[in-house]
Amino acid sequence: MAVGGFAVDGNVGAFSGRITASVVITCIVAASGGLIFGYDIGISGGVTTMRPFLKKFFPSVLRKAAQAKTNIYCVYDSQALTAFTSSLYIAGLASSLVASRLTAALGRRNIMVLGGCTFFAGAAINGGAENLFMLILGRILLGFGVGFTNQATPVYLSEMAPHKWRGAFNTGFQFFIGIGVVTANCLNYGAARLSWGWRLSLGLAAVPATVMTIGALLISDTPSSLVERNKLDEARKALARVRGTDADIEPELADLVKSSEVAKAANREPFVTIFERQYRPHLVMSFAIPFFQQVTGINIIAFYAPVLFQSVGFGSDSALIAAIILGLVNLGSILVSTVMVDRFGRRFLFLQGGTQMSGLLVPPQ
C-alpha cells in the first residue's frame, strides 16, 4: 500500500522510515509555502493601524477615531476596509475550489509555483497601490496565491515525508506560517514610524513569495504525483533522489504504479464516493475539524491582533509589541507539537488543545 507517496508494506517497507538530506531539504522548501500565508496574517492587521495608510485609503476610519471616547473598536466599521481585509479570503476560498483539480492535473510543485507567482503579483500591486481598486485587486491576487499554495503544500509534504515522521514534517507548514506572522509583526513595528511604512509592509510580501517560488522550481514533484501523471522516468529519478540511492527503488515504484492503476480502474468520482454511507464518518470529521477550528476565532485573533489590543486600551506601539509576543507564543507551541505529534498522535493533540482552549475561554466568576 502506498501512503504519503511511499510504499509501506511488502518488501519495501524498510525504506519508509529513512530521512535523507534530500527529503529534509525538499520538505523545508515546500513548507516555506506557509510563509506567504503567515506573512499576510501578520501584516494586514498591523497595516490597518497605521495612520498614513488609513489617511490615504480609509479616511472615514480616522474621522471616527478622532471622535471616539472610550472604545475605538467601532471606528473600524467601514465597508471599504472590510472589503480590503476579506477580499483575500474570498479569493482564497474560490481558488481552493479548483486548486485540488489543478493539483492533480498539473502536479503539486507546479501549483506551488503558480501560487507563488500570483502572490508576488498581488504584493507588487499592493506595495504600489494608489487607490482602493488597486489595493483590493492586489488582495484578490494574494488570495489566489494563498488558496493554491495552501492546497498543494500539505499534500506535497504528506507524500514526501517518511510515514513515521509525517506529522512532524507536516507541522513544518504551520511552523513557517508562524515564522511569517512573527516576521510581519516585527516589520510592522519598525515600519509604523515611516510615512510610507505601509508600502514597505505590503510590498515586502513579495520576498516570501520569491523564496517559495524559486525553491519550488529547484525541487522535483512527488513520486506519487509523477506516477499519477504517467511520468514514470521522472518518478524514478525523484525516488532515487529522495532515497539517496539508485538501488532498490523499483519495488517501491512498482507499488506506486499499482496504487495509481487501482485508483484509475475504479473510475469513480472521489467527491461522489465520499458521500457513500461507509465514508460518512470521515466526511463529517473532514468538515467538522477545520470548521470548528476556525469558529474558535483563532485566525481572527492573529489577523486583527494589533486592532484588538488597541481597542482595549493599548497604544499603537504597545499593540504591535503585544502582537509580536502573541506570535512568538504561537511559534513556541508549534515547536512543541512538532515533537509530540508523531509520538503521541493527532488525537492526543486535539484533546489537549481543545481542553486547554475550553478552560481558558471560560470567563471567571
Automatic annotation (TrEMBL):
The keyword Transmembrane applies. It comes from the Eukaryota. GO terms for cellular component: membrane. Coiled coil: none annotated. The keyword Membrane applies. Keywords: Membrane, Sugar transport, Symport, Transmembrane, Transmembrane helix, Transport. Residues 26-365 form the Major facilitator superfamily (MFS) profile domain. The chain crosses the membrane at residues 19-41, 111-129, 135-157, 169-190, 196-219, 283-307, 319-341. It is found in: Membrane. GO terms for molecular function: monosaccharide transmembrane transporter activity; symporter activity. It is a multi-pass membrane protein. Belongs to the major facilitator superfamily. Phosphate:H(+) symporter (TC 2.A.1.9) family. Belongs to the major facilitator superfamily. Sugar transporter (TC 2.A.1.1) family. This is Major facilitator superfamily protein.
